[in-house]
Amino acid sequence: MSTLTAGKPRVSDSSNTFDEPGVRSPLVLNHDSFTSVTEDICKVNEAPKPPLAWYITFAISAVLALMLFVLVGYLFLTGVGVWGNNVPAAWGFPIVNFVFWVGIGHAGTLISAVLFLFRQKWRTSINRFSEAMTIFAVVCAGLYPGIHIGRVWLAYWLFPIPNQMSMWPQFRSPLLWDVFAVGTYFTVSLIFWYVGMVPDLATLRDRTTTKLKSVLYGIFSLGWRGSMRHWHRYERCYLLLAAMATPLVLSVHSVVSFDFAVSQLPGWHTTIFPPYFVAGAIFSGFGMVLTLAIPAREMWGLKDFITKRHIENMCKIVLLTGSMVGYAYGMEFFIAWYSGELMETFAFVNRASTEPLETTGGPIGSWSLVMSLRHKSSGSSDVAGPYGSSLSLHCWLTSVCGLSGLSSSLHRWLSRRFPVSGDTSRRPGLTLPCSLEALGCS
Amino acid sequence: MTQMTMATNEPSQETTDSTQQTYGVFAEFTSPSKIFKAAEAVHAAGYRWWDCLVPFPVHGLDRAMGIKPTVLPIIVFFAGLTGTMVALFLQIYTNSIELPLWLLVPVTGYQFEVSGKPLISAPAFIPVAFEMTILFACLTAVGAMFVMNGLPRLYHPVFRHPRLMRLSDDRFFVVIETRDPKYVRGETEAFLESLDPEAVDRLEA
After folding, report:
1. Closest chain A C-alpha to B15 CA, distance in angstroms
2. C-alpha B113: how far from chain center
3. Which residue among A202, A209, A398, B41 is buried most deeply as judged by most CB within 10 Å?
């Protein structure tokens, strides 16, 4: 089935980045029939074998996952001291990872729920895989509270299960709020993802050529037959899910930030944390969506669906949320000074003088996107190549911003192992641009 | 077509009337605007047991078909309310009062005293109550939607016709069931033919 209309030249994937009042720019390029879209989307799934690059990257991931199991086994046998956690009240490494992964997940829900409520139609090109990203990110996040508790065989104490000791969780603790917030978030993300996928599974079912696939897709599509009476309830259900997932996604990272804000530690005990964490989550999450979307559109030839306009829209959100994170940083420092609170002032001065890039990296990472946006606005296609690659670089930067917590842990570990005498404020190469997660271990 | 053949052995109808074995008739259209007009015509003709099968929701088609708004939001509202109540009960029962409750075994709460704060400290109980509200409401929204739609249903007559394989791709169908009181063999087919479809055919049960 041809995806091109005879006589019409192929347009480039940046041809829809114009903004003309009264003219709606196309969301899908080079396709003028429903079936050509179905063909091109389904061929990703229906390819008999994945490309070689997939095997290579899967092998690398599999090795890393195997390493995870070995290290988690080591952790269980030895104790949380292997992370350097030597204070009973501090989480250190595991909470950094927990916050990072929950935050990554937020972009998926933002795309599927908030952009749906705002009628942003471009979201449909990227929402499914962003939601998948959310689910895997939340799975990764959920790993850390489970394994950090020291005695993993007592992990069920997190849940209110009636037991012979009449022992209940302490519901006034933010850690319990976390259990419920993350549990709900995972469940809702999963059903949101699946409900959105049911009609698509029906499409795949109707295109299958083998019996096994037909039966499996048939079961998972639940017998969806595209009835308008079903679509009517389905759309209402989807709208309700979006309307409930929107406050949910904001609440989840707010609750995560309560882990810090409800404590009385100087530097953490601040009211700015909930919005600040949510903005940071969306910032790093969109960085991750871009990191996944740019290779995916390249490898599977999806440039007609995930166009430069989609990338640009995502960059704008990164820019916005990055600026919000930058503002939150500034405000934190301002309040630390303005409050006159000695402990808090010390905490921030100490952080700023030992890890100077931490406070500037996030905003720099996002503002550097301005450059690529300006590139685009010239509109010519000859900058498309450098534009794309510079964007990838920026995306990587923004992801690194999300990884800050990890880098900061690494930094602390390195500085413990290899103490630098004298001026500790100059350690290029050890510090990476950082964002909110740095708080988790500072 | 290998579509769901595992479930095709329905109990055979011993009736000899051929209309009993025919599920319905369908008309195939190629664009949303065509099915929109067709749906309006079928609705105006007074049919009740009929449906439109479309690859994606055609906005406004539900109104053209005369579908009443669903009660789903009302169900979801009460589910959310249930979630709030369950969460508040759970927290107050387990953390604020010591009252044995017999389920299968005696279950007793434990009065946590934390820095002299009130035992029923409502602000601290809000986050969990909120999350449980969302959880109950979302699970109910999805569950009720599928149940009201009669799904999962792994076999349906529309899966048997080769032309209807495209209902999830790029074709739009109007299906009128034979059980409709207005269905008259031959006349309904002619009526569908008059709507300018690509094809009109019968669907075996």
Report:
1. 28
2. 48
3. A398
Q: Comparing C-alpha atoms, which of A101, A102, A130 is closest to residue A114?
A: A130
Cα A300–A302–A306 angle (5° rounding)? 140
B97-153 pLDDT, tens digit per residue, is: 887 777 777 778 888 887 788 888 888 899 999 999 999 999 999 999 999 988 888
Do residues B201 and B161 make contact, with C-beta atoms less than 8 angstroms apart?
yes
A1 and A35 Cβ atoms separated by less than 8 Å: yes
Does B155 reach chain A within 8 Å, measured CB to CB? yes
Residues B65 and B37: their CA atoms lie apart, in Å, by 10
Which value does ipTM take for this structure? 0.84
Whether A160 contacts chain B with CB within 8 A: yes
Question: How many CA atoms are closer than 13 Å to the CA of A2, on its beta-carbon side?
Answer: 6
Cα distances from B126 to residues A174, A223, A324, B95, in angstroms, run 11, 40, 27, 14
DSSP chain B: --TTGGG--PPPP----HHHHEEEEEEEESSHHHHHHHHHHHHHTT--SEEEE-SS--TTHHHHHTPPPPSHHHHHHHHHHHHHHHHHHHHHHHHH----EESSSEE-------TT--SS-HHHHHHHHHHHHHHHHHHHHHHHHHHHTT------GGGT-GGGGGGGTT-EEEEEETTSTT--TTHHHHHHHTT--SEEEEEE-
- Cα(A125)–Cα(A246) distance, integer angstroms: 20
Tell me the per-residue pLDDT of A194-215, one tens digit each, with 9 for 90 and over: 998 999 898 888 888 888 888 8
Over residues A156-193, the pLDDT tens digits come to 888 888 877 778 888 888 888 988 999 999 999 999 99
Q: A205 contacts in B (CB within 8 Å)?
A: 3, 168
- Pairwise CA distance, residues A308 & A385, whole Å: 11
DSSP state of A437: G
Residue-wise pLDDT tens digits, A221-269:
888 888 888 999 999 999 999 999 999 989 998 998 888 888 777 777 8
Domain boundaries, chain B: 24-69+157-204, 72-148
Query: Which tokens in the block code for residue A359?
Result: 């406070």
